[in-house]
Structures are given as structure tokens and as C-alpha cells.
Amino acid sequence: MREKRISFHHTIIRLCLLVTVGILCIWRPLKTHAVSPDERHYPGETQSTTVINAPGVAQTPEELNNLNTANTWTITYSEGNGELSGALRILLTLTMISLLPIIVLMMTSFTRIIIVLHFTRAALNTQTAPPNQILIGLALILTFFIMQPTFIRVYHDAIVPFEEGTITQEEALEKGMQPLRDFMYPQTQLKDVQLFMDIANLEWDGKNESIPNSVLIPSFLISELRTAFWIGFMIYIPFIVIDMVVASTLMSMGMMMLPPTTISMPFKILLFVAADGWALVIGELVKTFY
After folding, report:
1. What is the pLDDT of residues 83-107, one digit of tens each?
2. Cα dist. 60→1, 63, 67, 68 in Å?
3. Which pTM was predicted?
């Protein structure tokens, strides 16, 4: 048996060596060549270098020890109408992708939807049915449905003009934020805005334009949490009635050892399905944003 294991291990090692040799045989070597300074091409109309001092001009050991490169970088446009390089576009795209979950969670309808769906599942007492993946997917789909007009405004007002070079990056960020502000402000309660304004020691004239983003975003989140918990409480009420009826019935029958939730859960599901609960909850939940 031991000899068979050793033979099997030798066979595996031989196969690995054959695969490695095959990869080395078909691998095309990477060719590199030096480029003279005259052959280098830079984006834009100007060429600049990060070298502070030319080679060979250092006179003292201290100058030799200094880093001979500037710790800055610049992007040159042709009269403000240039195009970003591919590497910079990838960098900006990855940055936006990393910030996208924060934007979806904090500045859209996702927070209210996912909390209400969670309360609905908890009220039914079905544990993990529907599972978390289904609830998150449903919340994302409903979020995109509700936020579609806002996203279209962001695309046409900020992204398209910035790609065409008609507005700067600062103007694109401001124009892209404005549709989100127009969505968050009607959903935000005034007392929450005033709370964060007082914490930040800022004066507020009651207008949307005078609220900074650092105040509007947390105020919107607090309002969403309050609204979501209130809707969840309203969903709980009919299911609590069913639990009370089942518990009192079991007590009157002397069946104290039988958990009431075991009997009440089928009645909850029956009531929820008979009333077309998912369509009712989701429909009324989406209407709260209009």
C-alpha cells in the first residue's frame, strides 16, 4: 500500500513537471527596449519631468542624499479640452466602484427597503425564508427602480458633459450630487436637519441649497431609519394578534408545553398569502417615495 502511494506521488510530480515544461515552451518572452528622451510621448501639449536637479550637478554629500524627484504629479490638458489617459480612467473608475456601495447604502432608498423586508420576514417568523440573498437582491432591484429618474439626471447632467469636456471635475461633482440632494431632501424630516445643524453650529434658513452634504446625508439616514421602523411596527400588528389568539387558545386547552409559534406560523403564512402580502407590502413601500 505504501509503495502504491509513493508511485502515485511520483506520477503527480511528473505531471507537474510536464505541465511546467509545456508552459515554458509555449510562453512568449516579453521584449523590452530602451527609448531615448526624444522618442518619448506625453499627453497634452507640454512635457515636464519630475527630476529636480539634472544628473551630475550635486556638489556635496547632502545633495547626493536628497531625493532627486518631485513628490508631485500633474495632468496637462489642451486648453481644458484634453482627454484622460487610459490608466487614469481606470483609477477613477475603480475609485467610483469602491465608493458605489456607500452611495447605494446611504443616499438611496435601499436602507428603508431592506429594513422593512427584514421586519416582514421576522413578523412571519419564517427564520431564513426568504434568505438574505433574496432580500438584498429584491432591495437592490427596488432601489434601482425608485432611483432610476435620479440616476438618469446624474448621467445627463454630470457624466455626459464631463466626458465631452464642457465642464470641470468640480462642476461635474456638484451637478452629479444635486439630483441625489433633490431625492434626499423630501424624504428627510426637518427636525433631523435641525439636529445636525445645531451640532455643527450652523445657521439654516430652511432651504435645501443651504444644507451642506455633511448634514443632509446623516439627517436623511436618521429619517429613513425612523420611517422604516414605523412601517415595520405596522406590519407586525396583525401577526401579533394571531400570536395572541393562538397562545390564548393553547392555554385554554391546557397545552402549555406546545410552543405557540409552532401553531401560529402556518396561520401567519396563510394570512400573508391570502392577502397577497408581498405585493401589498412592496407596493405600499415603493409608494412612500413618491
Report:
1. 555 666 677 777 777 777 777 778 8
2. 74, 5, 14, 14
3. 0.64
